[in-house]
Amino acid sequence: MDEIINILKNMNNSIKQEEDWYQYGRNKVPRVTTILKEMLHEEYIAQWANSLGFKRLSYSAALREASEKGTYTHNVIERYLKKKEMQDMESIPFPARDAVMNAFEGFLKWYNIINKLKETRLVFSEKKMSCKYFGGTLDCLMVINGKLWLIDFKTSNHVSYKFFLQLSAYLYMLKECEDIEVDGGCLVLMLDKNEPTFKEYVIDFSNKEHLEYMNHCKETFLSLVYAFYNKRKAQERFKEIF
Protein backbone atom coordinates (compact mmCIF):
# COMPACT_ATOMS: atom_id res chain seq x y z
CA MET A 1 0.00 0.00 0.00
CA ASP A 2 2.86 2.42 0.75
CA GLU A 3 4.12 1.85 -2.80
CA ILE A 4 0.77 2.91 -4.28
CA ILE A 5 0.62 6.00 -2.04
CA ASN A 6 4.13 7.00 -3.13
CA ILE A 7 3.13 6.62 -6.79
CA LEU A 8 0.08 8.84 -6.21
CA LYS A 9 2.19 11.46 -4.44
CA ASN A 10 4.62 11.62 -7.34
CA MET A 11 2.14 11.57 -10.21
CA ASN A 12 0.90 14.69 -11.96
CA ASN A 13 -2.83 14.87 -11.27
CA SER A 14 -3.56 17.62 -13.79
CA ILE A 15 -6.73 16.38 -15.50
CA LYS A 16 -9.88 18.20 -16.51
CA GLN A 17 -11.85 19.07 -13.38
CA GLU A 18 -15.61 18.70 -13.13
CA GLU A 19 -18.05 21.06 -11.41
CA ASP A 20 -19.53 18.54 -8.96
CA TRP A 21 -16.13 17.39 -7.70
CA TYR A 22 -14.88 18.24 -4.21
CA GLN A 23 -12.69 21.24 -3.53
CA TYR A 24 -9.14 20.63 -2.36
CA GLY A 25 -7.16 23.85 -2.10
CA ARG A 26 -7.41 25.55 -5.47
CA ASN A 27 -8.21 22.32 -7.29
CA LYS A 28 -11.20 20.03 -7.55
CA VAL A 29 -10.82 16.30 -6.95
CA PRO A 30 -13.13 13.45 -8.01
CA ARG A 31 -15.74 12.00 -5.70
CA VAL A 32 -15.08 8.59 -4.21
CA THR A 33 -18.36 7.42 -5.75
CA THR A 34 -17.34 8.80 -9.17
CA ILE A 35 -14.12 6.77 -9.11
CA LEU A 36 -15.94 3.58 -8.09
CA LYS A 37 -18.69 4.05 -10.66
CA GLU A 38 -16.27 4.75 -13.49
CA MET A 39 -13.73 2.05 -12.68
CA LEU A 40 -15.99 -0.82 -11.55
CA HIS A 41 -19.09 -2.26 -13.19
CA GLU A 42 -21.45 -4.78 -11.64
CA GLU A 43 -23.33 -7.38 -13.69
CA TYR A 44 -26.50 -6.98 -11.62
CA ILE A 45 -26.73 -3.30 -12.64
CA ALA A 46 -26.81 -4.31 -16.30
CA GLN A 47 -29.41 -6.96 -15.51
CA TRP A 48 -31.49 -4.38 -13.65
CA ALA A 49 -31.25 -1.94 -16.56
CA ASN A 50 -32.33 -4.69 -18.96
CA SER A 51 -35.30 -5.61 -16.75
CA LEU A 52 -36.41 -1.98 -16.77
CA GLY A 53 -36.22 -1.98 -20.54
CA PHE A 54 -38.51 -5.01 -20.74
CA LYS A 55 -40.97 -3.11 -18.51
CA ARG A 56 -40.65 -0.03 -20.76
CA LEU A 57 -39.23 1.96 -17.85
CA SER A 58 -36.45 4.52 -18.13
CA TYR A 59 -33.14 3.42 -16.57
CA SER A 60 -32.02 7.00 -15.94
CA ALA A 61 -35.38 7.90 -14.37
CA ALA A 62 -35.30 4.82 -12.11
CA LEU A 63 -31.72 5.58 -11.11
CA ARG A 64 -32.63 9.19 -10.34
CA GLU A 65 -35.63 8.09 -8.28
CA ALA A 66 -33.52 5.64 -6.26
CA SER A 67 -30.90 8.34 -5.68
CA GLU A 68 -33.54 10.81 -4.48
CA LYS A 69 -34.96 8.29 -2.00
CA GLY A 70 -31.46 7.68 -0.67
CA THR A 71 -30.77 11.42 -0.37
CA TYR A 72 -34.01 12.10 1.52
CA THR A 73 -33.29 9.18 3.83
CA HIS A 74 -29.79 10.49 4.59
CA ASN A 75 -31.24 13.95 5.27
CA VAL A 76 -33.80 12.76 7.82
CA ILE A 77 -31.20 10.56 9.56
CA GLU A 78 -28.72 13.45 9.71
CA ARG A 79 -31.37 15.73 11.23
CA TYR A 80 -32.18 13.14 13.88
CA LEU A 81 -28.56 12.40 14.76
CA LYS A 82 -27.54 16.06 15.01
CA LYS A 83 -30.66 17.65 16.47
CA LYS A 84 -32.78 14.73 17.70
CA GLU A 85 -35.55 16.17 15.56
CA MET A 86 -38.03 14.10 13.56
CA GLN A 87 -38.49 15.19 9.96
CA ASP A 88 -42.01 16.15 8.91
CA MET A 89 -42.60 13.39 6.38
CA GLU A 90 -45.23 15.54 4.64
CA SER A 91 -42.31 17.63 3.39
CA ILE A 92 -40.94 14.60 1.50
CA PRO A 93 -42.26 14.38 -2.10
CA PHE A 94 -45.09 11.85 -2.24
CA PRO A 95 -43.40 9.36 -4.65
CA ALA A 96 -40.49 8.93 -2.21
CA ARG A 97 -42.38 9.26 1.08
CA ASP A 98 -43.21 5.62 1.87
CA ALA A 99 -39.69 4.44 1.02
CA VAL A 100 -38.10 7.15 3.17
CA MET A 101 -40.47 6.45 6.09
CA ASN A 102 -39.70 2.73 6.01
CA ALA A 103 -35.94 3.31 5.80
CA PHE A 104 -35.99 5.87 8.60
CA GLU A 105 -38.10 3.65 10.86
CA GLY A 106 -35.61 0.85 10.21
CA PHE A 107 -32.81 3.21 11.22
CA LEU A 108 -34.66 4.18 14.42
CA LYS A 109 -35.05 0.51 15.37
CA TRP A 110 -31.30 -0.01 14.95
CA TYR A 111 -30.41 3.24 16.74
CA ASN A 112 -32.64 2.49 19.73
CA ILE A 113 -31.21 -1.01 20.08
CA ILE A 114 -27.64 0.32 19.92
CA ASN A 115 -28.32 2.99 22.54
CA LYS A 116 -30.00 0.56 24.92
CA LEU A 117 -27.18 -1.97 24.76
CA LYS A 118 -24.15 0.27 24.34
CA GLU A 119 -22.79 3.71 25.26
CA THR A 120 -22.70 5.89 22.14
CA ARG A 121 -21.60 9.38 21.13
CA LEU A 122 -21.90 11.01 17.71
CA VAL A 123 -18.64 12.44 16.32
CA PHE A 124 -19.59 13.30 12.71
CA SER A 125 -22.72 13.12 10.61
CA GLU A 126 -22.56 13.82 6.85
CA LYS A 127 -18.94 14.99 7.16
CA LYS A 128 -17.42 16.32 3.93
CA MET A 129 -13.72 15.60 3.42
CA SER A 130 -11.18 15.88 0.62
CA CYS A 131 -7.55 14.99 0.08
CA LYS A 132 -5.19 15.54 -2.83
CA TYR A 133 -6.66 12.69 -4.86
CA PHE A 134 -10.40 12.40 -4.03
CA GLY A 135 -13.21 13.64 -1.81
CA GLY A 136 -16.38 12.34 -0.24
CA THR A 137 -18.96 12.63 2.52
CA LEU A 138 -19.05 10.01 5.24
CA ASP A 139 -22.47 9.23 6.73
CA CYS A 140 -21.61 8.75 10.37
CA LEU A 141 -18.65 8.45 12.73
CA MET A 142 -19.71 7.29 16.17
CA VAL A 143 -18.10 6.22 19.43
CA ILE A 144 -19.63 2.92 20.54
CA ASN A 145 -18.43 1.57 23.90
CA GLY A 146 -15.26 3.67 23.71
CA LYS A 147 -14.34 2.67 20.14
CA LEU A 148 -14.67 4.69 16.95
CA TRP A 149 -16.94 3.19 14.30
CA LEU A 150 -17.41 4.36 10.72
CA ILE A 151 -21.03 3.79 9.67
CA ASP A 152 -22.61 3.94 6.23
CA PHE A 153 -26.37 4.00 5.62
CA LYS A 154 -27.55 2.30 2.44
CA THR A 155 -31.00 2.00 0.85
CA SER A 156 -29.74 -0.14 -2.02
CA ASN A 157 -31.35 -3.50 -2.77
CA HIS A 158 -27.94 -5.19 -3.04
CA VAL A 159 -24.98 -5.27 -0.69
CA SER A 160 -21.63 -5.01 -2.47
CA TYR A 161 -17.93 -5.16 -1.68
CA LYS A 162 -17.81 -1.67 -3.26
CA PHE A 163 -19.45 -0.32 -0.10
CA PHE A 164 -16.31 -1.29 1.81
CA LEU A 165 -14.04 0.15 -0.86
CA GLN A 166 -15.94 3.41 -0.31
CA LEU A 167 -15.50 3.16 3.46
CA SER A 168 -11.79 2.47 3.03
CA ALA A 169 -11.50 5.80 1.20
CA TYR A 170 -13.15 7.55 4.15
CA LEU A 171 -10.78 5.76 6.56
CA TYR A 172 -7.87 7.10 4.49
CA MET A 173 -9.19 10.68 4.56
CA LEU A 174 -10.01 10.56 8.26
CA LYS A 175 -6.40 9.59 8.98
CA GLU A 176 -4.76 11.94 6.47
CA CYS A 177 -6.99 15.00 6.88
CA GLU A 178 -8.43 14.77 10.40
CA ASP A 179 -5.72 12.69 12.13
CA ILE A 180 -8.45 10.31 13.28
CA GLU A 181 -7.80 6.57 13.51
CA VAL A 182 -10.90 4.40 13.47
CA ASP A 183 -10.24 1.61 15.96
CA GLY A 184 -13.64 -0.07 16.32
CA GLY A 185 -14.53 -0.99 12.78
CA CYS A 186 -16.89 -0.29 9.89
CA LEU A 187 -20.60 -0.97 9.65
CA VAL A 188 -22.86 -0.88 6.61
CA LEU A 189 -26.48 -0.51 7.73
CA MET A 190 -28.84 -1.66 4.99
CA LEU A 191 -32.25 0.01 5.36
CA ASP A 192 -35.20 -1.54 3.57
CA LYS A 193 -37.37 0.84 1.53
CA ASN A 194 -40.34 -1.55 1.49
CA GLU A 195 -40.63 -2.33 5.19
CA PRO A 196 -39.12 -0.82 8.38
CA THR A 197 -36.28 -3.29 8.83
CA PHE A 198 -32.49 -3.20 8.80
CA LYS A 199 -29.54 -5.51 8.33
CA GLU A 200 -25.98 -4.96 9.57
CA TYR A 201 -22.78 -5.83 7.72
CA VAL A 202 -19.99 -5.47 10.26
CA ILE A 203 -16.22 -5.30 9.90
CA ASP A 204 -14.77 -5.57 13.42
CA PHE A 205 -11.18 -4.36 13.68
CA SER A 206 -10.57 -6.59 16.72
CA ASN A 207 -10.90 -9.47 14.25
CA LYS A 208 -7.57 -9.87 12.44
CA GLU A 209 -9.21 -11.24 9.30
CA HIS A 210 -11.62 -8.28 9.16
CA LEU A 211 -8.82 -5.76 9.64
CA GLU A 212 -6.77 -7.38 6.88
CA TYR A 213 -9.80 -7.22 4.60
CA MET A 214 -10.22 -3.46 5.12
CA ASN A 215 -6.51 -2.91 4.50
CA HIS A 216 -6.94 -4.85 1.25
CA CYS A 217 -9.96 -2.67 0.37
CA LYS A 218 -7.88 0.46 0.97
CA GLU A 219 -5.08 -0.83 -1.24
CA THR A 220 -7.61 -1.77 -3.93
CA PHE A 221 -9.29 1.63 -3.83
CA LEU A 222 -5.98 3.52 -4.08
CA SER A 223 -5.09 1.34 -7.08
CA LEU A 224 -8.39 2.39 -8.66
CA VAL A 225 -7.57 6.05 -7.97
CA TYR A 226 -4.26 5.65 -9.82
CA ALA A 227 -6.02 3.91 -12.71
CA PHE A 228 -8.76 6.57 -12.75
CA TYR A 229 -6.29 9.43 -13.25
CA ASN A 230 -4.38 7.52 -15.93
CA LYS A 231 -7.61 6.64 -17.73
CA ARG A 232 -8.74 10.28 -17.73
CA LYS A 233 -5.33 11.39 -19.03
CA ALA A 234 -5.48 8.79 -21.82
CA GLN A 235 -8.96 10.03 -22.80
CA GLU A 236 -7.82 13.66 -22.87
CA ARG A 237 -4.67 12.91 -24.89
CA PHE A 238 -6.71 10.84 -27.35
CA LYS A 239 -8.91 13.90 -28.00
CA GLU A 240 -5.82 16.08 -28.41
CA ILE A 241 -4.22 13.74 -30.94
CA PHE A 242 -7.30 12.72 -32.88
Description:
α6 (162-178) links the parallel β5 (147-154) and β6. The model has no long low-confidence stretch (mean pLDDT 90). The strands form two sheets. A five-stranded mixed sheet has the order 3-4-5-6-7, sandwiched between helices. Strands 1-2 form a two-stranded antiparallel ribbon. The radius of gyration is 19 Å and the shape is globular. It has a single domain (18-236), classed as 3-Layer(aba) Sandwich (Trna Endonuclease, Chain: A, domain 1), CATH 3.40.1350. It contains seven helices and seven strands. The protein is of the alpha+beta class and 242 residues long. The relative contact order is 0.15.
Outline:
The protein has 242 residues and is of the alpha+beta class. The chain has helices spanning 2-10, 32-39, 43-54, 59-83, 94-117, 162-178, 208-241, and strands at 22-24, 27-29, 120-130, 135-144, 147-154, 185-191, 198-204.
Q: What CATH architecture do you see?
A: 3-Layer(aba) Sandwich
Tell me the strand percentage band: 15-25%
Rounded mean pLDDT score: 90
Q: Strands of the largest sheet, in order across it?
A: 3-4-5-6-7
Query: Ends: how far apart?
Result: 36 Å
List the helices and strands and how they pair.
Elements: H1 2-10, E1 22-24, E2 27-29, H2 32-39, H3 43-54, H4 59-83, H5 94-117, E3 120-130, E4 135-144, E5 147-154, H6 162-178, E6 185-191, E7 198-204, H7 208-241
Parallel strand pairs: 5-6
Antiparallel strand pairs: 1-2, 3-4, 4-5, 6-7
Helix pairs in contact: 1-7, 2-7, 4-5, 6-7
Can you tag this structure with a few keywords?
Trna Endonuclease, Chain: A, domain 1; five-stranded mixed beta sheet; two-stranded antiparallel ribbon; 7 helices; 53% helix
